[in-house]
Design a protein that fits this description.
Layout (H helix, E strand, L loop, with lengths): L2 H17 L8 E4 L6 H14 L4 E3 L7 E2 H6 L7 E4 L11 H11 L7 E6 L2 H17 L3 H8 L7 H5 L18 H4 L6 H10 L6 E4 L3 H12 L37 H10 L1 H20 L1 H23 L7 H4 L16
Parallel strand pairs: 1-4, 1-5, 2-3, 2-4, 5-6
Helix pairs in contact: 1-13, 10-13
Length: about 350
Amino acid sequence: MAGNAMREYLNLLVDESVAATKNQTCNIAFVKTHKTASTTAATLLYRYGKRHDLNVAHFHGHQSSIELPEAIEDSGKPVDLMHYHHAWDGFYEGGWAEAKAAYKKIMRDPTKVNLVTVMREPVAHYMSYYYYFLQPETGLSIAEYFELSAKPGDPRYRGVFQRRRAGKAGWHGFKLLHNPLCAEFGIRTATELESFIRDDLQGFAMVLLTEHFEEGLAVFMRMFNWRPIDMTFCRVIETKAGVSRYDGKKLTNVPKTRDLPPEVLAQIKQQTQLDQALYKAAVKVYLQKRAEYQDSLEVDVRSIRTVQSAVHGYLEFNAKSPAHKWYEGDVKCFANPSPVQPF
């Protein structure tokens, strides 16, 4: 399809979805996790909200139409799509009870908040977490990091394991990174985890899994009655050599789980025992949601891939398209582009 024809086709897909907004479901509180493809999911959701002229709010630090404190305080601005996280670099920052209270206070329909999140297999998650948040600071491989944790007399020990939270008073204390996935939900103990799984996780509208991301988007699309154009995405904030993170520090490749020494793998599993239980429960919820839409799943995945290919193929050969703001890897779509950014 020629460039102009493809542009018209893609813009038509957007227009058709926007015209169907009243028949689609939103009122989504997206519980952001880190190093799970959640920023990829967040940009997808944010783009939908802005294209459909909905009220979007997300965590402090990005330019946005509404930041969380304002959204909570101003009941005159009900939120259609919320994007927020409660933990940062693997350490506990907030509690799930506070999160739920905030969501119910600011969402357009507080009686039916559609909670959505992303979870990832804990060993791969721990590795990606370490190599994005900690390795650029420590300069240590994961094996060296664990070795140093057993040497409190080493002059490097204090600098690595006693870490001040940027902009916050107090210290994290001397400890290894542990259960970073649970930290996203304010879960610190097995009792808190059991309560969260029993009382909250089952109530999530959708739990996406990093390992089955496209398939999960297809389930989500059918569940919320969105269109394939709404599910198109780009991968952002990847942890790999040649890429810099938010502060300009260089990243390195994350070792594959299969290449880890047995003792390192064992220690990661020791440090992620709660995460393992949370992920197991998340997989169960995901499979339940997936089963509801099994009959259309193959067709829906294929439809998303077809439009995804069309979007990225068009953008590859049209460098001046305004839609690049929605599909580039540095999260530019948070910078308040117009509600419907044309191709």
